[in-house]
Amino acid sequence: MNISNWTAPDPFVTTPDMLIRLVVGLLALAAFVGANATILVYVERKVAGFIQRRPGPFEVGPQGILQTIADAAKLIGKQLVTPRGSDGFLFWLAPIVGFLPVFVMFLPIPWGESTYVVQSDVGVLLILAFAGFGVLSLCLAGWASASKWGLIGAARAVAQSVGYEIPLLLAVLAVCFSHGSMDLMAIVKEQGGWPWQWNVATQPLAFFIYFVCALAETNRAPFDLPEAESELTAGFHTEYSGMGFGLFFLAEYANMIVVCSMATALFLGGFQGPAAPGPWWFLLKVYGLLLVMMWMRWTYPRVRFDQLLNLNWKWLLPLATLNLLATAVALKL
Amino acid sequence: MMENAAKALFAFYCLAIAVGAIGAVRAENLVRALVGLILALFGVAGMYLLLDTPLLALMQLLIYAGAVVVLVFFAIMLTRTSDGFDEARPRPMRAYLFALLAAAVPGLILAWTVTRHPVPSEAKPAAVGVALLGKGLLENYVLAFELISVVLLVAMSGAVVLAFRHKGGGK
Questions:
Q1: Angle of helix B69-79 versus helix B30-50 axis, rounded to 10
Q2: Between 20 and 30 A from A161 (CA), which of A151, B101, B123, B130?
Q3: Are A323 and A206 contacting, i.e. CB atoms less than 8 angstroms apart?
């Protein structure tokens, strides 16, 4: 008797594997981004509390672990207000433009040997290309708000991200040069399990430049000039209420994970680790880097705008160029 | 299934390009025009993806949608043109006719050339690896590749000269 007749016809038999992988991957990523932002906000506030010698969120749930869930519910429940005089269409387009590319940026990240959504030989480029939309959404938000704080925040965001994107690209290129590939999976696989086999050992300067630029690109303190609350109220998202602000917030935390994942894959050996390589090593390194980001946020004061630009154009850019040249020469020798 | 999907996507990207381009031309303020331009650039990137050239598509997004558009935005914010500026004035019918003519002539010439001398094309686009592309640009076509950078250099020095003239002779 033929058993195969008993089973229902497979509806996915003509669907390419790639499509199924993409849909499942995007769904998983959507859940990951949401859950992760909730956890990271809690961690951030606890870290801030620890550094400033206070308990941080404490009242909602044991040790305050339900605080961010309460905050999220509050955000979702709030009324969406379109300020008078603003460009309504662009005003609401901006948070969407900021949030959607985040999913694409997660696609080529190699979480583990077989845990990935797409493996592409232009994976690095995919992340960098869509990272540019973040600043675009800040510009649209700041401009469409018809508010001087928003506009100044947007102007700052442009000057900052256009500048810091260049050394970031050059630092990433140095690693791509030394591996002859832009495929994150291939770059991870060429690194070994132990820290001295990672790219950070051969490219320490590139790692340093990458990390500083990543802080600036994600608008994290000490480089959070576009939303400097002491001068600009909240910069580009001053006028947003409810989930309009919530989407910017989600995008910021998702962007933090993307830059840390990329740092992990490019410089810290990705899912490779001493004994039992796997996704847990990847996540461990990513969250380690995220903790460093939070630590820096609550340690360093915000830089002035001229300091920010001087640091980029006078130090990081020449250093990154020299590093790239040295890498190219060393590879040819 | 994939073939129909490709056709549907082609139509979708065509629509995106057309809507974006018309929006860019017809918009009454510059930022909205810029958003139209972004949509059109996105559509072009989608076309590149359909042609199985992900590198070109991503470069299109990285350079045009990511960098050039942001710089244009910066320029708009620096000049701070208000609504109801020159762009928003109603134009005479004549202007539309001329614009239509200017669009139709190259369009017709291109359409005529393509239908008269069809380019032999493959049924399915074949992907060219990044390494091969790089080799081509830096070995076979290195002269053309370098000449493009000369053009960019000239444009850049021209911009600097213009900026300095405005600064010096502000009278």
A1: 180
A2: B130
A3: yes
pLDDT per residue as tens digits for the range A37-94? 888 888 888 888 888 888 888 888 788 888 888 888 888 888 888 888 777 788 888 8
Q: Which two tokens stand for residue B72?
A: 């244009």
A18 lies within 8 A of chain B by CB: no
Share of residues in chain A with pLDDT > 90 (%)? 10
Q: What is the pLDDT of residues A170-180, one digit of tens each?
A: 999 898 888 88
The residue of B60, B64, B70, B74 whose CB has the most chain A CBs within 10 angstroms, and thus the best one to mutate to test that interface, is B70
The stretches in chain A having pLDDT less than 50 are 1, 3-6
Rg (alpha carbons) of chain B, rounded to whole number: 20
> Is the torsion defined by CA of A285, A215, A90, B91 positive or negative?
negative
| Contacting residues of B for A121, CB less than 8 Å apart | 129-130
- Cβ–Cβ under 8 Å, residues A139 and A158: yes
| Count of all residues that appear for chain A in the document | 333
pTM: 0.83
Residue numbers in B near A168 (CB within 8 A): none
**How many angstroms away from the CA of B31 is the closest CA of chain A?**
8
**How many residues does this entry show for chain B?**
171
Phi-psi region of A100 (alpha: psi -120 to 50; beta: other; left: phi over 0): alpha
List chain B residues with pLDDT less than 50.
Answer: 171
**In chain A, where does DSSP find H-type helix?**
17-51, 67-77, 88-99, 101-106, 123-144, 148-179, 184-190, 199-202, 204-217, 229-232, 242-267, 279-299, 305-310, 317-332
Q: Answer yes or no: do A136 and B131 touch at CB < 8 A.
A: no
Q: What is the pLDDT at residue A64?
A: 81
Query: Residue B37, SS3?
Result: helix
Look at the alpha carbons of A229, A230, A236, A241 in this order and tell me if their dihedral is positive or negative. positive
Angle between helix A204-217 and A242-267 (nearest 10): 180
pLDDT of the residue at B85: 60
The answer to whether residue A138 neighbours chain B at the CB level (below 8 Å) is: no
Count of the separate structural domains present in chain A: 1
Handedness of CA B47, B49, B51, B53 (dihedral sign): positive
Range of the domain at A183: 80-332
Q: What is the CATH number of domain B2-127?
A: 1.20.120.1200
C-alpha distances out from residue A263 to A207, A232, A269, A288, B8, Å? 8, 31, 9, 11, 38
pLDDT, position B30? 81
Look at residues A211, A165, A203 and name the one whose alpha carbon lies nearest to residue A323: A203
Q: Is the ipTM of this complex over 0.85?
A: no
Please tell me the distance from the alpha carbon of residue A156 to that of residue A141, in angstroms, as a whole number. 13
Q: How far is A253 from chain B (nearest CA, A)?
A: 20
